[in-house]
Every structure is written in C-alpha cells, then in structure tokens.
Amino acid sequence: MINPKDHLYRLTTHFRWAMAVLGLFIASFLIYLWTENQVDLAHESRLQSFKLAQELRQSSDDLTRMVRTYIVTGNPLYKQHFQEILAIRDGKIPRPVNYDSIYWDLVLSDDHRPNPAGEATSLLGRMRAAGFTKEEFDKLAEAKANSDTLTHTEFAAMALVESEPMSDQKRSQAILMVHDAAYHDAKAGIMRPISEFTTLVDQRTIKVIDDAEQKTVLMRSTFILLGVTLGWLIWSIQRNVRTILGGTVSEVHDHISRLGRGDFSTPITTKKGMSNSVIALLAETQSKLHYIDTQRQLAEQATKESEERFNLAITGANDGLWDRNLAQNTVYYSPRWKSMLGYEDHELANTYATWAGQVHPEDIDTILEKIDHCLTHKIDRFQHEYRIRQKNGQYIWVLDRGMIMRDENQTATRLVGIQTDISEQKYVERMKNEFISTVSHELRTPLTSIHGSLHLLDGGVMGELPFKAHDMVKVAIKNSQRLINLVNEILDMEKLMSNMMIFQKDEIDITTIVRQTMFNNISYATSFGVRYAMAPKQEKCMVIGDADRLSQVVTNLLTNAAKFSKPGDTVNIRIIPTNEFARIEIEDHGDGIPLAFRSKLFGEFAQANSSNTRQQGGAGLGLNIAKKMIAKMGGDIGYITEIGVGTTFWFTMPLASTTVVV
C-alpha cells in the first residue's frame, strides 16, 4: 500500500531539485557557449595578428616590386602605385576592402582595381587597436619604421632615373641601389622584427587558446553531468507521479472523461498496492456518483409522482389558476380565480380582455413589459405583484407566479400560472413601512448631529484626543454613517411606497453615468481588494431616465458586487443596447446567490447571511430600492447566478430616440 504523503513529499523534493539542476544546466550551457566563444575569439585574435604582420610584410614587398619595375620600365603608373601603397599604409587615402589578401598583384597595366575602397585607416593605428603586448607592438612598429626608412632609398633611386639628362649609367646605378647588399640588409631589417613578432604572438595566442579550450572541456563535462542528473530527476518525478496517480496520465484522463460524460456505472479498477492513489480515489468517487445517480433517478420518479398529485390538489387549493394558450389564442380562469374577485364562474368570460380590464391602469404596462422580456430572452419563469379590481370596485393586491412553456423550436406556446391574494400581506407591509418611516424621521436629525459632532472631535476641535479615544471616535463615525445610510434607505423606501419620489425623464448618457459612478466607488472596491473593469471604448448610449436615481442604482449594484467578490477579483461592467432598451450588466465572480435566498432577494431587509452582511455593511434594502426605482423609470432588473461561479445583476432602461442601435 502506497503512502501518498511520502510520495508527494518525494515528488516535491525531486521537483525542486530538478528546477535547481535545470537552472544550473541552463547556466552551464550558457557558460559553455561563452567559453566556446572565447576559443573562437582567441583564434580570431591570432588570425588578425598574423594578418597585420602579413599586411606589413606584403606592403614592403609591394613597394620593392613597384620601385624596381618603375626604374626598369620608366612607366609612371608603377611610381603612382608606389605612392598609393604608402598613402594607404599611412591612412591618408581609403584602404581597399580585403586589402590584407592579394591585391596589387591583380592590378595590371589597365590600372583596374579588384576591390572597392573602404575606410581610411593607418596600419599603425590598427596595430595599436589590436591589443598586442608592448613587446609585440614594438616589433611591428620597428618593422614599420625600417620600411619607412627604406622608402628614402627607393625615392632616391626613382629620382635618379627621372633626372636630366637621362643615361644608361644613371639607370644602372638606380637599379643597383634597389638590388645591392645594403638594400637587402634594409629589407632584412624589416622582415626580422616581423618574424620575431610572429614568434611572440604565436606563443601568447597558443597559451590563450589552450586555456580557453581547457575551460571549454570543463564546462562541457559539467554540462553533460548536469544533463544526466536532470534526466534522472525527470525519470524519478515521472515514476513518483505514476505512483501517486496509480497509473498513467492517459488512464486517469480516460476515467475522468468517462465520469464527465455521466457514465457512473462502469467500475474503475485499482491496481494492487495502489489503494491510496488518484485512480483509487476516482474509483471511490465513481461508486458514490453511481449511488447518487441512482438516488437522483428515484427522486425524479418521486417528483413526477408529486407533480401529478399537485395537479390533482391545485383544483382544491385556495389560489386561482389561469392558463393562456398562445397557439390557440384561448384563456382559462379557474372558478377560484374568479371568486377571488367576487364573481361567479359564469359572470366572467375566459378571455384575455377580462384580465386586462381588471388590472390597475398603473400596473398593466409594467406587467406586459415583464412578460414580453421573459418571452424575448427565453426566461421560463416569472412572477409579479399588481393590483386587480374586484366586483365591488375595490382593488386587491395579488401575486402572479407563471411559467412559459415552449415547443421544440423554443417558441412560446402557453403561459400557465397561479394567482394568490396578498392584500393582507401588503397591509402588514404598509403598516410596517409607516412605523419605519416614523422611526426613521425621529432618528435622522439626532444621527446627523451626532455624526457631525464626532467629525468635529476627530478633527481636533476639542483638542487632541488620546490614542485609544481617537480609534473609538473613528469606529463611532463609521457606525454612525452606516446608521445614516440605513435611515436614508428607509426614507427612500417610504417615498417609493407612497409614490412621493419624483423621477425626471431626461435624455441622458447611461455610459457616462455608469463610468462616473464606477470611478466614485473605486476606493470602496479597493478596500475589498476588488477592481472594476469597463470597456474603455464603450459606445455612448442615450436613455430616458433620472440621472441621480440611476447613479444610486448603479452604486448599489457595484458595492454589492465588491462586497461579495473575492480579493483579487474583477467586477466587469457592460452596456448592451438592444432594439428598445439599454441593458446594463454588472458581473462578479463571488460564490453565487444561495438557492433558498433567491425568492427573497429583492425583498425588504433581505440578507443571504446576516452575520456576513453585518460584517460587510448593509441592511438588505438596496436591491429592493433599486428594483422599485428601475420600475418607476420604465425598466426591469434581474440577475443570473451560478453557485461557485458568480452573479450578474442586470437592469434595462428605455432607449432615447437619438440612440441608434447598430
């Protein structure tokens, strides 16, 4: 039986060693390349040294050949070449390309040059730049100086054959000047230092090359040793991984893929001694999933039977049932639905006009917009509260909960739902709101005064506070501000419930409002380690609404997204214009909304986790206020959530006539 902890520790240790050896392996390879380069540089330096010596020797020989040819032939072209050789060597005129190779031997009587001209550089200057030792440089400098001295004799010989009157005796004398023993001694004075220079350079560069090659051999050996060590570590890592997995990666992948496809019935076999491996855990998981899947099938069967019982029981329930067949354009209202309004079954016709004529005029448009939104966006379930007129002329509050049924093409065919009388609940809520309003008005004035006084204390109006007292004042300021915000939210609720809140209907750029609100709340998001992100090139989008109220709604959604996001997360903001509405989406990557809380999400004082919400701030009124404000401005609000993935809150606003949707 394997011990996963031992193998995991060994795998981690070997992996760390492998990373270290890999680093050394790369470093040794780079050093090895550097040592190889040093060998190449040493060879190149040796070659360049010999080239400079050869060029000096070649130029001396070329000068001798040119002066002798000129004396014999009298052709001024050779004197010109003689002078040009000296000028090139002294850097007075450009040096031909590849001049250190054969050059003047290829310049014939037509004076055609085999190579183009390059830069003007003196031979002595290049000698200085070559990095020779002083002794080596002195040898070349001596040879150069002796060659320059010899040119005096050569110029004298050329001058002799040019003097008038010209005679065979003068020509013979000039020829002798460049062929006698003194001339050959002078040539030897040039070649001897060059030979000594060659010996010195040869000894020095051979040593440099030997040293560099020894380092190269050392680094090559080190590189090979590290490579072998790295190979062994990789083999060991692979062996440990296989032991931990209980098989090959391919086998693990196959098992996971089978589970991912929902195949829980095929058992996973575990090899002997691998009871604690990943494959063993997958086998255990497969067994549990198989059990869960069996239970799910049983639950589905039980659900089906329960639904059948529900259909039987709904007939006797106290809720009204309605059914609208879109394909056949027919409507059905149960007797209880009609009696809820005070009518007998035969007194109301089963038509759409019956329902539309009973709904309060202020509610009908909002209901139809919500249903149309669900139809358009493939939303199958909906619910809304509205007022409906009874036979005696009074209105009662009802809750409609409906479901949209679709065919195989996802086309809506029927709307089915139940209607519940919630008038008593609304009455209780109104009494609660009146009580809350009274309390809020009584709290607001003293709270504002307390908050202001605390700010004065914090600002040092009463003198410098002790350190502990200063911290307590900070806490008091923060908590008093939370109370003020709560009171303000309660007052907003009161205004909305009593229809006292005034909403402007202006053409406004929702993009500007969202962007400014995002900037205003950046510091709040930062306190949770969260950032907001909005497309920098978000198009301008004009809507009809109240700028201040929209900013309040966006602030609520942004702060909620920040509170319930994980540190380091990004809250994404999008504005999507459609044919009639602008859709604003605020997406977080938190834990998602618990299933049990979703039905109460837009209710008053709604909190998914009271203790957690208390720590993060808020009393659960913001979403309720936002929903009412959006509804007052002709829009809708909702959310899409997935546990463990996050939540996207959205709301819509009517587009202005100036907005063009592309």
Automatic annotation (TrEMBL):
* UniProt-annotated location(s): Cell inner membrane
User: Which intervals hold domain PAS?
Assistant: 306-378
Enzyme class, broadest EC rank = transferase
Domain PAC: from-to ranges: 382-434
Instruction: Enumerate the GO terms in the molecular function aspect.
Output: histidine phosphotransfer kinase activity; phosphorelay sensor kinase activity
| SUPFAM superfamilies according to UniProt | ATPase domain of HSP90 chaperone/DNA topoisomerase II/histidine kinase, Homodimeric domain of signal transducing histidine kinase, PYP-like sensor domain (PAS domain)
Membrane topology per the entry is: Multi-pass membrane protein
Q: What is its main location?
A: membrane
Q: Which reaction does it catalyse?
A: ATP + protein L-histidine = ADP + protein N-phospho-L-histidine
Q: Does the keyword Cytoplasm apply?
A: no
Domain Histidine kinase intervals: 438-657
PANTHER family, sorted: OSMOSENSING HISTIDINE PROTEIN KINASE SLN1 (PTHR43047:SF72), TWO-COMPONENT HISTIDINE PROTEIN KINASE (PTHR43047)
User: What is the official name of this protein in its record?
Assistant: histidine kinase
